Amino acid sequence: MKLILCHTLLQFIFSTAFIIVFTFSFEKVEAQKNELSKVWVADNGDGTYKNPILHADYSDPDAIRVGNDYYMVASSFDAVPGLPILHSKDLVNWTIIGHALKRQIPFAHFSQTQHGNGVWAPSIRYHNNLFYIFYPDPDFGIYVTTAKTINGDWTDPVLVEAGKGLIDPCPLWDDNGKVYLVHAFAGSRAGIKNILVIKELNSSATKTIDAGRLVYDSHGIETTVEGPKLYKRNGFYYIFAPAGGVSTGWQIVLRSRNIYGPYERKLVLHQGTTNINGPHQGAWVTTQKGEDWFLHFQDKGAYGRVVHLQPMHWINDWPQIGINMDKDGIGEPVTHFKKPDVGAFYEKQTAQESDEFDQQKLGLQWQWQANPQQGWAYLYQGALRMFSQKIEDTIKNYWSVPNLLLQKFPAETFKATTKIIFHPNLNKEKIGFIIMGMDYAYINLTKKQDGIYVSYAVCKDAIEENKEQEQVIAKLNSNSVIFAVEVKEGAVCTFSFSEDNKNFIPVEGSFTAKAGRWIGAKLGYFCSRTEQTNDSGFADIDWFRISAIENR
After folding, report:
1. Cα–Cα separations (whole angstroms), residue 74 to 56, 191, 281
2. Interatomic CA distance for residues 334 and 322, integer angstroms
3. Parallel, antiparallel, or unpaired for β 195-201 and 179-185?
4. Are 332 and 274 in contact, with CB atoms under 8 Å apart?
5. What's the rounded Cα separation, in Å, for the pair 254 and 262?
6. What's the pLDDT at 551?
7. Residue 96 is inside which H or E element, if any?
């Protein structure tokens, strides 16, 4: 194991108890130094880029430009820390620089897993030297959090409006000094959907001050209209909104001379002849050189909702997104294109993936499956030390276990390897390397009376509280192991292990990863036990590395 002279225990006060959270460096815009991805780089290095610009699950992206910097936020649902913030200089090369939510409120509610709940589609804006992020929690209402600098301390979320099913908010500061908010409704909570409303906010943009007005009803026109973004240009108010559903939909734009309508409608982006399904829901951004671009997602099942960048231009005060291949006035997404003109050249960058666990903070790509508690994990002596946590008797499988530390799939094909040293105290203590979704699989070390064993488990339809099917593979000669998983096209996963990092023993068969609740599959760790104790065992995770799959 790598040794370092000092370590940091990062703690956060919650009520009178301490909750361990891995905080983020907000000292500068740049994220901690990370290597260029070995599995997906969007920048082709010749002045062009390929889509997706982020081959990872950054659902419902919204973005802004402030000066020469671009910032993106995305849905994070129940993952903690939440509300990821990404940074770019050219709209193509992105890194994670922090999170606006270090833990989710209400705290007790999110101390347990809340798959599919939590932070839905957010919006980010910059007004009067203040950053705003509006986000909805479909079970509680619309919140706003602010910061004076993107890398500063974000305020505790303020409840702008309480209510069930209020989703996808986006503000607009108008020329007359008024502040407006557009949002949609989630039928699962509100009992209504396919409509957009606009409400007025107070001057500080922290509370709605009226009941709002219905500005678009899509019934009889199209279904699943949501995710609105509100803009103003040349005297027109514009609402960019996705329609038709996550995996099969399209992008519409509404415009009006009056904030409250009536609004004209135009279809501006669809799949067309491409293989980029459901291209919609995102953000319009203008570069320093006056170019217009549109960021959106594509639903790729187990790989999540990956982010694309499309050229955009205006014709008769209507935006056209992508390329109008058949001259019907409706854009189609591009797979390759010239990079945006931002007035300068920037080196390639990619979002964080690998982690040596030898820094003072955890890599920003990692998120827990619930608000973390004291004692789940610490960075210690060049490793991530995870202490086993007791699984409650009511929990049927790992779908409901909160102390899972996970990150997104980084590409369509990749290999993940990790070195683990296990120090169990009790029989049945486990350290697992898991691919998590509605189906999941993991390889793990388990303490038994006569030693440490490698096991492999698969759980189908975990959301239905089904039991795992587990098989013992081998007994270890020591307490150290290298686990690996290869993810190939179609999210087909094969696990293996090694005691010397040279000779890998494959697990028989393969596992096809499945999406989670509104998210792609993730991979990472858990450390668990079945018994109560005053001194749990632990596992030291020495490193985690993403690499390309070797040709054999």
Report:
1. 11, 25, 11
2. 6
3. antiparallel
4. yes
5. 9
6. 80
7. strand 94-101
Position 16 scores a pLDDT of 33
* Tokens linked to 256: 């009006």
Q: Which residues are catalytic?
A: 60, 226
Lay out the sheet containing 130-137: strands in order across.
123-127, 130-137, 141-147, 158-162
Partners of 441 in the β-ladder:
435, 458
Half-sphere exposure at residue 233, Cβ-oriented, CA atoms within 13 angstroms? 19
Average pLDDT by consecutive 10-residue portion of the chain (552 residues)? 38 33 35 79 98 98 98 98 98 98 98 98 98 98 98 96 98 97 98 98 98 98 97 98 97 98 98 97 97 98 98 97 92 98 97 96 97 97 98 96 98 98 98 98 98 98 97 97 98 98 96 98 98 97 97 74
Q: The tokens of 177 are what?
A: 């000094």
Token couple for 355: 């982690």
Please tell me the pTM assigned to this model.
0.93
Phi-psi region of 519 (alpha: psi -120 to 50; beta: other; left: phi over 0): beta
The owner of tokens 């090694």 is 498
DSSP assignment of 447-458 equals EETTEEEEEEEE
Q: Give the rounded distance of the alpha carbon of 357 from its chain centre.
A: 21
Distance CA 186, CA 192 (A): 7
DSSP line for 331-393: BB--SEEEPP--SS----------B-S-SSS--TT-EESS---TTSEEEETTEEEEE-EEPPT
3-class SS of residue 167: strand
Give φ, ψ of 425 to 5 degrees: -110, -25
What DSSP state is assigned to residue 111?
Answer: G
Contacts by residues 23-28 (CB-CB < 8 Å, ≥ 24 positions apart): 23/102, 23/361, 24/81, 24/97, 24/98, 24/99, 24/361, 24/364, 25/98, 25/151, 25/361, 26/98, 26/149, 26/151, 26/152, 26/153, 27/151, 28/151
**Could you give the CA distance from residue 332 to residue 271 in angstroms, rounded to a whole number?**
6
Determine the Cα–Cα distance for residues 420 and 168; give it in Å rounded to an integer. Answer: 41
Q: Which two tokens stand for residue 255?
A: 């415009």
Instruction: Single out the residue of 25, 8, 118 nearest to residue 377, CA to CA.
Output: 8
